[in-house]
Automatic annotation (TrEMBL):
Domain EAL: 398-633
Protein name: EAL domain-containing protein
Location of the HAMP domain: 170-221
Pfam families given in the database record: EAL, GGDEF, HAMP, LapD_MoxY_N
Transmembrane segments: 150-169
Coiled-coil blocks: none
CDD domains, sorted: EAL (cd01948)
């Protein structure tokens, strides 16, 4: 039985005991008092009437008149005169009163009152014995009415007491439910914090649990900080903080092969011309500061254009990968503006030639870098801040106008989305789930997401595509009973209307929802953490599993996610590539997997290309792997 029910039963039992006890004491006391008073009255009246009869003539008429007068003017139940031999000489008896008192109540509180008796004298001899009993039926009516009044009073007091008890129980129950919810969250390894209640005992419990959550947050922050330092030494340029050449080119390769908006975009290469001379003129510290400022301005440009990555290819060349389809003229103007701000901030003349090139799904990094190198050589000969756009291979677009793209995309979504299947496999060679990137039929062929996602984002059709993908995935799960993982776009995180629509669809298919895995890019979730929290809170009760993909560069913020109840993390392929031969990467991944497991989160590796990599990853403690080298059993 719950504590709340026990409290209610205790309150009700106390009220009933108080009512029954008070009623019993009241009725018993009144009953004793009435019996005593009536007993005295009977004796006094009998003695007084006997005295009067003793002093009068003893003729039958006078005696009868006196008894009748006494009976009629008082409230008597019985007046009787008997001869010394016991014969009835005179008798007056009243009928029982009909005063509306229930017979069961009369039987329960029946008054035990003896009639008064007195001797009537005739001179020195006994004339007779007088018996007198007062009418005490009025006492039953008084007792009944007082009982009703007491019952009504206790009913009022009981109602007020129950209302007060309800308020007190609700006041206690609210923080108690929060404590229960927090305990369940901690048991599920979601280390949430709660506001401290006013109740002392509950406040001490909540303080202890909040301290536990805070300790977990601190531990995660410290451990992820150590792992991030190791990752930075492995993947970043020590001077500028930009990605090193190997890491950046791996990111570019994955973008070109991906089924996301990142499959197309713009490459920007900026060169600090004659860097040795700049270093000699400004000094090492000032030169390093100028290079860090260049990286900062390129990162700011990437943020303005919707996201990207900055890397250092060599001593003087820096590459910016801007995600998504872009207007190359707008990118050029924005780049020129950032470089101008950089020169003003540095306060020294710098030669910063730059080259731009569009990339798209199917290109190779070597092709794009070769085109950029040629364009950059051309820019160096044109002046300090010359910008040259590298010409790429001529490609015939599927559609030539925005309206044509919009019409084709909407028509294809309405006709139906197809989902590919790429397995995520655990160490026992069991499929954990299938990654299911979307496919749309455009221009008579099924196209991968890398081709149409940039246009979906540009035309702001992400919510329509995401809903279509979710509906298709739920339908496949219901038919084939296969766990599927789908990607949501960045817009899904901040669009409340989309979240509500998705929640309704998941609630209508609860069995299928429990086999649906939803993942978002790490950067998308962490850059709008409040909206991501809302997404998790709205969807998790449906049974769907929510996680992050491409986890790596911002792993230090894992501590901010300890209370979200994430189901899985997919570690970025840049940490996985060649892991069987890289001790530093093994150390990072082992630590990341351990921290994920401490929160009850599955650790999954992306981009696995060789069986040796998969074997090493399982030895490091990861739960599952996926990538081009992973096949379904």
């Amino acid at each position: 039985m719950s504590l709340i029910k026990q409290l209610w039963l205790t309150v009700i039992l106390i009220l009933l005991l108080a009512f029954v006890g008070s009623l019993a004491v009241s009725v018993t006391s009144t009953q004793d008092y009435v019996e005593q008073e009536v007993q005295i009255k009977n004796a006094d009246n009998a003695n007084a009437l006997a005295l009067s009869m003793t002093q009068m003539e003893k003729d039958d008429v006078s005696i009868e008149l006196l008894l009748s007068a006494q009976f009629d003017t008082g409230h008597y139940r019985l007046i009787e005169l008997r001869s010394p031999q016991g014969d009835i000489m005179q008798r007056r008896e009243a009928e029982p009163l009909d005063d509306g008192v229930p017979s069961w109540f009369v039987d329960l509180v029946r008054l035990d009152v003896s009639p008064g008796q007195a001797v009537v004298q005739d001179g020195w001899s006994q004339y007779g014995t007088l018996t007198l009993a007062s009418q005490h039926d009025y006492a039953y009516r008084s007792l009944w009415q007082s009982t009703l009044k007491m019952t009504a009073w206790f009913a009022l007091v009981g109602a007020i007491s129950l209302l007060l008890a309800w308020w007190i129980v609700r006041t206690i129950r609210r923080p108690l439910l929060e404590v229960v919810s927090q305990a369940r969250s901690i048991s599920a390894r979601r280390f949430t914090t709660s506001s401290e209640p006013r109740t002392l005992e509950l406040r001490e419990v909540v303080q202890a649990m909040n301290t536990l959550s805070g300790a977990v947050h601190t531990m995660l922050s410290e451990e992820t900080g150590k792992l991030d330092q190791l990752r930075r030494r492995l993947q970043e340029d020590a001077t500028t903080g930009a990605s090193n050449r190997t890491t950046l080119l791996e990111h570019l390769q994955r973008n070109l092969e991906s089924d996301s908006q990142r499959a197309s975009g713009v490459l920007i290469m900026v060169r600090v011309d004659d860097l040795p001379e700049v270093n000699e003129r400004l000094g090492r510290q000032a030169t390093d500061a100028a290079l860090r400022a260049l990286v900062s301005h390129l990162a700011q440009l990437a943020n303005e254009l919707g996201g990207g990555e900055v890397g250092r290819l060599n001593g003087s060349d820096f590459l910016l990968v801007v995600h998504g389809a872009q207007d190359i003229e707008h990118v050029s103007e924005s780049l020129k503006h950032q470089l101008t701000l950089l020169r003003d901030a540095v306060g020294a003349p710098l030669r910063l030639p730059a080259a731009l090139s569009e990339y798209t799904h199917g290109d190779t990094p070597s092709q794009r870098l070769a085109a950029l190198d040629g364009a950059l050589a051309d820019a160096e000969g044109r002046g300090d801040m010359a910008l040259v756009v590298a010409s790429g291979e001529a490609r015939l677009p599927l559609y030539t106008t925005h309206e044509a793209w919009r019409s084709a995309l909407i028509q294809s979504m309405d006709a139906g989305v197809a989902l590919a299947r790429f397995p995520v496999v655990n160490a026992r060679q069991e499929v954990v789930h299938y990654e299911a990137p979307s496919r749309l039929e455009l221009a008579g062929e099924w196209r991968s997401a890398g081709l149409f996602m940039p246009w979906v984002a540009r035309l702001q059709l992400e919510d329509k595509l995401d809903l279509a993908v979710a509906e298709r995935a739920l339908a496949i799960i219901e038919t084939d009973q296969l766990p599927l993982g789908i990607n949501l776009s960045g817009r899904a995180v901040s669009d409340m209307a989309f979240i509500k629509a998705l929640r309704q669809r998941l609630e209508h298919a609860p069995e299928a929802a429990r086999k649906l895995w939803i993942e978002l890019p790490e950067s998308t979730a962490l850059h709008d953490l409040a909206s991501f929290r809302l997404l998790c809170r709205e969807l998790q009760h449906t049974g769907v599993r929510i996680g992050l993909e491409h986890v790596g560069s911002e792993f230090t913020r894992l501590a901010d996610l300890h209370d979200l109840g994430l189901a899985f993390l997919k570690f970025d392929a840049s940490l996985v590539s060649g892991v069987d031969q890289a001790f530093d990467q093994q150390t990072i991944l082992r630590g990341m997997a351990t921290l994920a497991h401490s929160l009850g989160i599955l650790a999954i590796a992306e981009g696995v290309k060789r069986p040796e990599e998969a074997e090493t990853l399982f030895d490091l403690g990861l739960d599952a792997v996926t990538g081009p080298g992973v096949k379904a059993p």
